[in-house]
């Protein structure tokens, strides 16, 4: 799988431009169908938007630019684009991460401990604060003195994927749950801590969903960072650019305002053309176009019921930060 990823990195045009601008983090989803292994989506990034920027146009900007989130949204967009001819025979879905994060990465930050609970909830920690608390949910970014963002950490989100599937609520009626079978991490990890961060701490949620929806415990493997051709230069600062790619499209580069590179306002507003193809409104518009506007969430399904259950009764998931409670569909 690493070989397939390295081949795709080399083939993806403009990807080298991202890494020349500064260091970055990469993640990818790979699918195995029969004997064939292919990279379906790539994400490159390590930032997220503060709530102050998201509030201006929440559906038209990318909230979370972390690599695994971009790769996941790229996978969802690929499924949307291919929905009419989708072959359901995905035998094996793998997620490759260049680095681990969230609760799984706290140990290495114990020398930089800062206390930063979210004011409204002692069950949610800000960034890397309280490094020894591996149980709580966390928000991004890692620096607790950064502008506030309610984007949840990647280990929290991967935990949610293991509970409800990675396909999003919008596609669930068509695809059913799609789970990650295997996670490969390009750095040394403590396997027990990593598994606890993405699954073990959600014990109550697993018990709640046991009779409502399937869930999955992925296999986990760490490999040497030297096996990946993704470059890293200690003399460079981290880049503010992010990028996404999935099968059938060119690389899209986005910036720290959550829009495509080069985005500029016209008559005081950002044109529709500045939106990323992975933002909420772009994915929703594409689904509406493919399905001629027919709503897929007209009746309750297992995903909807499962989400409601863990957000109301789960020990951790009921503390998940939600910007707008009127948003009914997870994209």
UniProtKB/TrEMBL annotation:
GO terms for molecular function: double-stranded RNA adenosine deaminase activity; double-stranded RNA binding; tRNA-specific adenosine deaminase activity. Residues 41-283 form the A to I editase domain. GO terms for cellular component: cytoplasm; nucleolus. GO terms for biological process: adenosine to inosine editing; RNA processing. It holds the Pfam family A_deamin. PROSITE patterns: A_DEAMIN_EDITASE. This is Adenosine deaminase/editase domain-containing protein. It comes from Rozella allomycis (strain CSF55).
């Amino acid at each position: 799988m690493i070989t397939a990823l390295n081949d795709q990195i080399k083939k993806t045009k403009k990807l080298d431009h991202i890494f020349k601008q500064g260091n970055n983090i990469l993640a990818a989803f790979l699918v195995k169908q029969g004997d064939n292994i292919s990279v379906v989506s790539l994400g490159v990034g390590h930032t997220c938007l503060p709530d102050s920027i998201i509030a201006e146009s929440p559906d038209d900007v990318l909230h979370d630019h972390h690599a695994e989130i971009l790769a996941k949204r790229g996978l969802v967009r690929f499924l949307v684009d291919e929905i009419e001819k989708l072959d359901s025979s995905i035998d094996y879905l793998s997620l490759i991460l260049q680095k681990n994060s969230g609760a799984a990465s706290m140990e290495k930050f114990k020398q930089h401990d800062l206390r930063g609970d979210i004011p409204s909830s002692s069950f949610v920690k800000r960034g890397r604060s309280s490094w020894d608390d591996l149980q709580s949910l966390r928000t991004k970014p890692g620096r607790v003195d950064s502008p506030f963002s309610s984007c949840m950490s990647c280990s929290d989100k991967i935990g949610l994927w293991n509970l409800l599937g990675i396909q999003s609520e919008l596609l669930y009626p068509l695809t059913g749950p799609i789970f990650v079978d295997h996670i490969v991490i390009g750095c040394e990890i403590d396997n027990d801590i990593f598994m606890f961060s993405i699954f073990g701490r959600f014990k109550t949620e697993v018990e709640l969903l046991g009779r409502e929806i399937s869930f999955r415990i992925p296999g986990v493997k760490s490999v040497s960072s030297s096996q990946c051709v993704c470059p890293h230069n200690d003399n460079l600062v981290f880049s503010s650019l992010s990028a996404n790619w999935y099968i059938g499209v060119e690389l899209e580069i986005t910036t720290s305002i959550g829009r495509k590179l080069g985005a500029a306002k016209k008559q005081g507003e950002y044109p529709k053309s500045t939106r990323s193809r992975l933002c909420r409104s772009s994915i929703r518009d594409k689904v509406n176009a493919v399905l001629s506007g027919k709503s897929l969430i007209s009746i309750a399904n297992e995903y909807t019921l499962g989400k409601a259950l863990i957000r109301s009764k789960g020990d951790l998931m009921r503390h998940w930060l939600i910007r707008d409670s009127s948003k009914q569909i997870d994209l």
